[in-house]
Amino acid sequence: MKYYDPKNKRLVFEEKKADEKFWDNLWKDDQLKSFVKAGKRDRFVSFFSKKFLKPDRSVKILEGGCGKGQYVYALTVCGYNAMGIDYAPEIVKKLNILFPRLPIQNGDVRNMRFNDKSFDGYWSLGVIEHFYEGYDSIIREAFRVLKPGGFLFLTFPYMSPFRKIKAYFGKYRDIQQGFHKESFYQFALNRDKVIEDLQAYGFDIRYKKSLDGMKGLKDEVDTPVLKNIFSKIYYGKGFLITGIKMLLYVVSSPIFGHITLIVAQKKNRSV
Questions:
Q1: pTM for the whole thing?
Q2: What digits encode the pLDDT tens for the residues 221-244?
Q3: Residue 246 domain-assigned?
């Protein structure tokens, strides 16, 4: 269930509460080892890391909220000194057993045990939207552990142009109409507000991009016939379907994008 929060100009998703047990249950996987190793085929995190940071073992990158650890593995394969932190204890234990040389530890991205100015890069992939109380402490911690000039790579669901149009025309339930805080799952955040906050914390914005327009089409188009078509394309396989999916992904993301990527660089000052 989705609700619109007009005060903060964001969507609120009501599902299962995204706590430690939720993530441990979600990430139960008998093929965990092969899933993590498949991270070496990653083209997203690796591409944008290389765009801003030259691969080298002296370059330290942290992934906050690393989940199954596939991107920590991908960054390591790329040549970075990568490590991860996640607050789902069972998955961290499994990863430590399966990949003892992959530095992943249990912890909270809102209060990390790393020293100030420890990392050249920090990846946060779909994390900040899951905290009902807000993302202030997450961004402040990212700023603290980054070196001056270091890069924050941030992705989250956002209010795409199409979602803004739907909100304007009242296509979502108002947050006052039955939302239950105890079932909060995530936000689709206001990107302009996040950028404004990042700048206030001490970051310069270097890059932004809308992504995953195919999921936006599948989730947000309400016409039953079109929704059915986009769902079949989204979940479909095969050469032709994959080609259509890739084309729609590119052309639809600026308007229908489900998530956004922001790359921000830490200024040489404290907050």
A1: 0.91
A2: 999 999 999 999 999 988 899 999
A3: no
